[in-house]
Specification:
Strand content: under 5%
Oligomer: single chain
CATH class of the largest domain: Mainly Alpha
Order of helices and strands: HHHHHHHHHH
Radius of gyration: 23 Å
CATH architecture of the largest domain: Orthogonal Bundle
Helix content: 55-70%
Number of domains: 2
CATH topology of the largest domain: Tetracycline Repressor, domain 2
Distance between the termini: 99 Å
Number of strands: 0
Structural class: mainly alpha
Length: 222
């Protein structure tokens, strides 16, 4: 006769706090990007992340802290991605082109980043001002473009006196404004600004605009 059936105890679920945090941050990024800080709901974040509200508050203490963590992760991601470009090994002109293309492509692939930045500007950066890491992570970013400009001046391909921070702001602006205002401007200019050919034309224009700011004039004048 067969023996008694073995009772198999259910496996204990192993907790992975870091994996849970990553899911929460990803879910929160989507919620904050779509609803803004005021409209975002912890309930919706918990549902999307497959976590409970108590766990979210355990990890982040408050909605404000979770929002700040999302902002820091968003800025951290673009800076980490940019650090992989290795522009230090490129000719200064190619280095500038690479940074312009990267910024444009990153914005296109990460619309949540644009939404988060726009939303935080509505709050006059009151959450970002609390960050202890934003300044540090952008120090390398700011120094990188300054180094490219210095190399270009030494090689006599760039004109001297270009402010690296202003150039960084302009590289961001020529892509940011175009994409964040694509719907209204598509109506105004009676064209689909995010059609493939329109995006290609815009990138070409961005590259020409930035290079005209930094290149020496062909007649040798500064």
């Amino acid at each position: 006769m067969p023996g008694p059936a073995k009772i198999i105890a259910p496996r204990k679920r192993v907790r992975d706090p870091e994996a849970t945090k990553r899911r929460v941050l990803q879910a929160a990024k989507l919620e904050f990007a779509r609803q803004g800080f005021a409209g975002a709901r912890i309930d919706a974040i918990a549902l999307r992340a497959k976590a409970n509200k108590q766990m979210i508050y355990h990890y982040f203490s408050s909605k404000q802290n979770l929002y700040l963590a999302v902002l820091e992760e968003a800025y951290g991601d673009i800076r980490r991605s940019e650090s992989q470009l290795e522009v230090e090994h490129l000719h200064p002109v190619e280095a500038i082109k690479t940074m312009v293309r990267f910024t444009w492509d990153y914005y296109l692939k990460n619309p949540e980043f644009l939404a988060l930045v726009s939303n935080e500007n509505l709050h006059k950066a009151k959450h970002l001002k609390r960050s202890r890491v934003i300044g540090e992570m952008h120090g390398v970013f700011r120094a990188r473009l300054a180094d490219i400009l210095e190399r270009g001046v030494r090689m006599r391909v760039f004109r001297p006196g270009v402010d690296a921070d202003q150039l960084n702001l302009t590289i961001a602006a020529v892509g940011y404004y175009y994409l964040t205002n694509r719907y209204t401007n598509s109506v105004i200019y009676e064209t689909n600004l995010v059609a493939a050919d329109a995006l290609e034309r815009r990138l070409a224009f961005n590259l020409e605009t930035i290079l005209r700011m930094v290149l020496r004039r062909s007649d040798g004048a500064e």
